[in-house]
Amino acid sequence: MSRVCELTGKKAMVGNNVSHAMNKTKRTFGANLIKKRFYIPEEDKWVTLKVATSTLKTINRIGISAVLKEARAKGFYK
């Protein structure tokens, strides 16, 4: 399974390592992902999702139901 947030679609970005001599080599900035279980009261079940920590902050602020509804509208979560 790839390292992509299942609710927002966040994934790795590409950038440069820059040395003191200003030499540039390619590198990746990985998404800050965690595996977390959520309880969805509307469906009365637990789901395990791989989410970015920034998405976790959003879930804490507006709730898992609202985030899932938005993710389904964007096509990230089935």
Automatic annotation (TrEMBL):
Gene3D superfamilies associated with the record: Ribosomal protein L28/L24
UniProt GO cellular component terms: ribosome
InterPro entries: Bacterial_rp_bL28, Ribosomal_bL28, Ribosomal_bL28/bL31-like_sf, Ribosomal_bL28_bact-type, Ribosomal_bL28_sf
Keyword Transferase carried by entry: no
UniProt keyword annotations, A-Z: Ribonucleoprotein, Ribosomal protein
Family: Belongs to the bacterial ribosomal protein bL28 family.
Cross-referenced PANTHER family: 50S RIBOSOMAL PROTEIN L28, LARGE RIBOSOMAL SUBUNIT PROTEIN BL28A
This protein's name: Large ribosomal subunit protein bL28
